[in-house]
Every structure is written in C-alpha cells, then in structure tokens.
C-alpha cells in the first residue's frame, strides 16, 4: 500500500509530514512526502514558516506520480494560494481518493494557512477531495457558520459537501462541554454520529494522526464508516499514549495499527498473485483468516466478508476484511486453536489428491475427516459440521496439523484447509504445495 502526503514539515515530528509518515508506517503502508512549507516550532512555540515555491511543489508531485503507484493521497498544510493552485494543477485529473485535512493554525497558535488562501482552498481543493476532515473551528471557518449543537454540525457538514466534496467528517474534539465528544460523518447522503469519552490530554499531532490513519484505511479499501471507526480508535489510542518529550505539549505517540489486519491483508495480496493460484481456489471460493490470541468466538477472527475469487490465472479479493467476516474457515481455526493455541490463521483450498501427496512429501502434518460419518443429530444443527469434523481430525494429534482435508459428501464440495501460526506461516505452506 502506497500513500502520498502533501503537507508541511514539523521539525518536532509530532504533526505535519513527519507525523504522517509515522502513521502510515504503523499501518504497514509506504509513505511518500511532498513538502509544501517548512515551519520552525517545538512543543512550546511557533517561530517561523516559509512556503516551498509552487514550481517545486509541482515537480515534487510529478516526481512521485510518474514513478510510483499510489493508493491514496492526503493533503495537509497548504500555506498560500500559490501552493493550492500548484496542487490543483497536478491533481486535477487524479483518480485516487484524496483526504483533505484543513490546517489553519498550529497547536501553539502559528498561522499555517494565510487568510487570503481560503477562497482558493474552497474552490480548488475541496472539490478534488473524496473526504474533508475539519474540526469544529475549521468547519466554522470554511462554512462561515457558527456551530453550537449537533444539529449545527450536521447542517455545516451539508453546507461543506455542497462545495463539491462527497463526504465530510466534522470532529467535535474539545469544543463541547460534557464527558462525551462527538464526531459527525456525512457519508454521501447518510449521517453517522460517533461518540467517545473526552480525553483530557492536550497533545500535538492528534489531528494529523486522524486524517493520516483515515487515509491508510481508505487506501486499504475499507468502507468509509469502518475506515472512520478504525482511524478514531487508532487516534484515541495514540493520544492516550502521548508522551512528554519536550517541555511543552505532549507529543502524540503512534501505537501499532491493527497488526492482525495488516498482516492478513498483506498475505492475501501475496496469495492472489501466486502463479496459477486460481487452479487451487474451490467452487465455493477461498477465505483467509487470522484470529486474535486466545479467541473465544467468530467475532475474534478476522476474515473476508466476501471471498477471494478466481479471475483468470489470479485471485481477486471481493469484500472487506472484518472481525466475524468468515464463518467456515474461521470456525475451523477456532476449533484447532482450542487444542493447539499457537494456531491462529487458516485458508481453504480446492481438494486435489496431488496437493495432498505433495504436502505429505514435504513433511507436513496432514489429517482428515469423513463428512459421511457425521452423526445425523449434528448435521441437523446449523454450523456444527466444521467443528465436529475438525475436532475428529485432530483428536489423536499431539502436535498441530498443517493440513486437514475432507472428500466431501452428497452436494458438499471436498476441501483442503491449511493452518498456521499467522498468515505468513500459512502462505509459506501454501507456496510449498502449489508450486
Ligand atoms: O496538526 C496540524 C499541523 C499540520 N502540519 C503542520 C503543523 C501542524 C500543527 O502544528 O505544524 C506542519
């Protein structure tokens, strides 16, 4: 996953382009940076700012776009009209989603966007964007309206959307009194309100952390509401983790993104590009799952809501990753994990005697069950076949299985399941038997 941030430099590295790079890394993404301005600031004071020339902003953007595939773009600090026009010129026809984070003032009060740049910001950058992420003060400034209630937040979100951006999230931040903070998302035509406990931590970098993590989640292909949810969670954790590095404000410290999700999504993309993998994808298609440690239910297992489907020689992902997204493969992993807790990941492949022979010849531990032997009582109960089959297959095992297969039953497709400690481990086993 490759993400471009177009933003200002913050030498204290809490916010701005340096903060964005740290957030992207936490999500396992590669971050590219186009610097629009250089600031000098620390956790107590803001000293100076100078924009980078518009020709240099343009050529930085071109240098990235002509060489790399980009999945999403974040735009942060844009100091003046010239910068805005340069960015618009280069991104006017871009297809990738743009996450626009309006940045008008630094946490310590420095001016990060000139007053006379606002009209170009509204006219040129807002319509280019997939989503804009103002806090209440920034939303007031863009819309020209005061926000005093949740209703005002919704009206202002609609007004900003009319400027030409598809989606708007207004972060309530610390502007309402009371124990809860509310964020309003206008997701195309639908409103979602998110609430969380007020964090009493004045920090430097929280805003950038939110928009950069939202960008990473959108780049991953998450649905907007889920992307916002994940970004909020990540930001709250990173703010709770803020540390006093300088003598002023605490600096946001990024926690790791959801490791389960990033390693699973990484393994799934590798799986899809294995040579002729489509020959190993069954009729019912493939799911790939990864559970949290000590899982207790399907909700603790992440899998695809859809499937990995055959498309020509390769596999293509249809659907999003979600906890509880898989039923069959996830329940097989849960059942193995009850006995062998090191097993947390699994995948299903098409049954083929050659694949089984190859696995045995490579020294893998292979076990099986016979669906025809399933007791009738068990068959009648929904969702009981897989746990029964897996527990039967592992009953006499002393060490975890690499593979469990069954040869099907009337109207039931035969199947191979491959298990491992994590998605990388499963992928390594797949590569041994499909090549
Ligand atoms: O957090 C917003 C922000 C963005 N970009 C730069 C900043 C700040 C806040 O201080 O300095 C460069």
Under CATH, the topology of the largest domain can be stated as UDP-N-acetylmuramoyl-L-alanine:D-glutamate ligase
What is the H level of CATH, i.e. the homologous superfamily of the largest domain?
Answer: Ribokinase
- Uncertain regions: pLDDT < 50 for 5+ in a row? none
Count helical runs: 14
Instruction: Give a quick account of the main beta sheet: strands, pairing sense, barrel closure.
Output: 9 strands, mixed
Write down the domain tally.
Answer: 2
CATH architecture designation of the largest domain:
3-Layer(aba) Sandwich
User: What is the overall silhouette?
Assistant: elongated
CATH class of the largest domain: Alpha Beta
Structural class designation? alpha/beta
Gyration radius from CA atoms, angstroms: 25 Å
Helix % is: 25-40%
According to DSSP, the number of beta strands is 20
* Cofactors, ions, other ligands: 3-hydroxy-5-(hydroxymethyl)-2-methylisonicotinaldehyde
Question: What's this, in brief?
Answer:
With 435 residues, the protein is α/β, with parallel strands linked by helices.
Describe this structure in words.
- The chain is an alpha/beta fold.
- The protein has two domains: 2-257, UDP-N-acetylmuramoyl-L-alanine:D-glutamate ligase, CATH 3.40.1190; 261-434, L-fuculose-1-phosphate Aldolase (3-Layer(aba) Sandwich), CATH 3.40.225.
- It has helices at residues 16-26, 54-65, 81-91, 118-125, 136-143, 150-161, 206-219, 224-240, 259-272, 328-339, 353-361, 376-380, 385-394, 423-434, and strands spanning 2-9, 30-41, 46-51, 72-75, 98-100, 131-132, 167-171, 180-187, 190-197, 203-204, 250-251, 288-291, 301-304, 307-311, 314-318, 321-323, 345-350, 366-368, 403-406, 415-420.
- The strands form four sheets. A nine-stranded mixed β-sheet has the order 3-2-1-4-5-6-7-8-9.
- The chain binds 3-hydroxy-5-(hydroxymethyl)-2-methylisonicotinaldehyde.
- 3-hydroxy-5-(hydroxymethyl)-2-methylisonicotinaldehyde binds next to strand 1, strand 2 and helix 7.
């Amino acid at each position: 996953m490759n993400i471009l941030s177009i933003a200002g430099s913050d030498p204290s590295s809490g916010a701005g382009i340096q903060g964005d790079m740290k957030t992207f890394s936490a999500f396992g993404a590669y971050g590219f940076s186009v610097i629009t301005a250089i600031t000098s600031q620390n956790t107590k004071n803001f000293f100076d700012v100078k924009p980078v020339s518009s020709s240099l902003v343009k050529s930085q953007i071109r240098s990235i776009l002509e060489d790399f595939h980009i999945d999403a773009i974040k735009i942060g600090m844009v100091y003046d009209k010239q910068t805005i026009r340069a960015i618009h010129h280069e991104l006017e026809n871009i297809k990738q989603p743009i996450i626009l984070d309006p940045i008008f003032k630094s946490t310590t009060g420095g001016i990060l966007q000139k007053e006379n740049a606002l009209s170009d910001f509204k006219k040129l950058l807002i319509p280019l964007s997939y989503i804009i992420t103002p806090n209440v003060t920034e939303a007031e400034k863009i819309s020209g309206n005061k926000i005093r209630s949740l209703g005002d937040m919704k009206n202002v979100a609609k007004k900003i959307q009319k400027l030409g951006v598809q989606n708007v999230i207004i972060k309530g931040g610390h502007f309402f009194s009371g124990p809860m903070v509310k964020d309003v998302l206008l997701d195309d035509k639908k409103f979602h309100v998110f609430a969380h406990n007020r964090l009493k931590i004045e920090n430097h970098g929280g805003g950038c952390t939110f928009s950069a993590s939202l960008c990473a989640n959108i780049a991953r292909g998450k649905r907007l509401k889920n992307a916002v949810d994940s970004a909020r969670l990540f930001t709250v954790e990173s703010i709770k983790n803020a540390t006093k590095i300088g003598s002023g404000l605490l600096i946001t410290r990024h926690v790791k993104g959801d490791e389960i999700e990033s390693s699973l999504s990484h393994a799934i993309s590798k799986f899809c590009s294995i040579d002729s993998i489509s020959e190993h994808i069954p009729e019912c298609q493939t799911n790939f799952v990864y559970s949290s440690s000590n899982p207790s239910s399907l909700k603790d297992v992440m899998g695809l809501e859809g499937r990995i489907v055959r498309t020509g020689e390769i596999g293509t992902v249809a659907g999003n990753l979600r906890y509880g997204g898989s039923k069959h493969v996830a329940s097989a992993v849960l059942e193995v994990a009850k006995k062998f807790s090191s097993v947390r990941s699994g995948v299903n492949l098409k049954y083929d005697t050659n694949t089984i022979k190859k696995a045995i010849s490579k020294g893998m531990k292979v076990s099986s069950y016979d669906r025809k032997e399933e007791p009738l009582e068990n068959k009648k109960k929904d969702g009981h076949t897989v746990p029964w089959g897996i527990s039967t297959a592992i009953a006499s095992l002393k060490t975890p299985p690499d593979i469990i297969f069954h040869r099907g039953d009337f109207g039931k497709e035969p199947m191979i399941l491959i298990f491992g400690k994590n998605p990388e481990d499963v992928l390594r086993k797949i590569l041994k038997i499909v090549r």
